[in-house]
From TrEMBL:
Record's protein name: DUF3231 family protein
Lineage, top ranks: Bacteria, Bacillati, Bacillota, Bacilli, Bacillales
Pfam family, one: DUF3231
Length: 333
């Protein structure tokens, strides 16, 4: 029985977006669970998979009660669990951790866009579930000593205020650049960490993609991630800050696809959107004049790359359209 208050356009949009993401995660986890070599990692992924399936059904129920169409999302046709391993040990949980980070941001945003009580409850539950799963991933990776920690810094003993505009130097060729502050270093370090994993992910995708155009697109993405890691690492090293590094989580030599080109393209699109959001935060909180220019240039490259991916998906019939608002001009013709 549908509630008296119908779903708003924002709530329909968030349900559609969540359904797309969760069905993708469901299919990818099915593959990673099949190839898990560590019982603890397998348990973490199985628990996540079970909860994700439940939330997919919850979304279906809400949409059915409203008389709305159920999205296609990603199905059993988009995964092949019996092919060889595409990634080395530890990639599965490191990848899941990053998916949890993306999900936490999305669920919190979707919560603020919801007005019906059942929708608010849904995103509160999703947020709590995602945070719990994220904690399990972090604990596991730290226990295995594969999660790189941000660089140490001396604890501040005094409070300082900027004296004049010298604090923001960095735009001029002959002006000296101050050392990064902790806020700037944190965002740059995080961008490197996520792009290192993204580079490994998309390297695997490039090895197994079926369509030549998709393979070429993934190779381009690998080079973009490599450029981000290189450019941002240089900024850290200029301030004598160590860059993140970890063992494991690499692509294997397999050339057999566990996922459809459609699913892999969507996954890369999701990462692009996440990268743009993270980059925007880094730009907003960077006070040294040269940093926003670098970050904005990176954002432009990511945006262009993401748009190119959208065109490939649309051309191949893989781009499922979000529910549309009524076209009044068309209706009154």
């Amino acid at each position: 029985m549908s509630q008296e208050i119908p779903l708003s356009s924002s709530e329909i949009a968030t349900l559609w977006m969540t359904y797309q993401q969760k069905t993708m995660i469901r299919r990818m986890l099915e593959y990673f669970i099949t190839h898990a070599e560590d019982d603890q990692a397998k348990e973490i992924m199985q628990d996540t998979h079970m909860q994700v399936v439940n939330y997919i059904e919850d979304i279906k129920t809400i949409l059915k009660n409203e008389g709305a169409a159920i999205p296609v999302g990603y199905t059993e046709k988009d995964v092949n669990v019996v092919v060889p391993k595409l990634y080395d040990k530890m990639f599965d949980i490191m990848f899941l951790r990053l998916l949890k980070e993306i999900s936490m941001g999305l669920h919190t945003l979707h919560l603020t866009m919801s007005y019906r009580k059942d929708m608010i409850s849904l995103y509160k539950e999703l947020t709590a579930f995602t945070q719990s799963g994220y904690d399990k991933c972090v604990d596991y990776l730290q226990e295995k000593n594969v999660l790189p920690r941000p660089p140490a810094v001396s604890v501040p003993k005094t409070v300082k205020f900027a004296e004049g505009t010298d604090y923001m130097n960095g735009l001029h060729l002959f002006s000296s650049k101050r050392a990064l502050n902790t806020v700037e270093a944190a965002h740059i370090y995080y961008a490197i960490e996520t792009n290192v994993l993204g580079m490994q992910m998309i390297t695997g995708f490039a090895q197994v993609a079926s369509e030549p155009e998709v393979k070429k697109y993934f190779v381009k993405g690998k080079e973009l991630a490599k450029k981000v890691v290189s450019d941002y690492s240089k900024i850290l090293l200029e301030s004598d800050i160590q860059t993140p590094a970890t063992w494991g989580a690499k692509a294997t030599e397999s050339k057999v696809a566990p996922f459809s080109d459609k699913l892999m393209m969507y996954c890369v699109s999701l990462f692009c959107s996440f990268g743009l959001g993270s980059n925007a935060l880094g730009t907003a909180f960077s006070l040294r004049g040269d940093l926003p220019l670098t970050l904005v240039s990176t954002a432009k490259d990511i945006l262009t790359y993401g748009q190119d991916g959208g065109k490939i998906m649309a051309k191949n019939g893989w781009l499922e359209e979000p529910p549309s608002m009524e076209d009044r001009n068309d209706l009154i013709k």
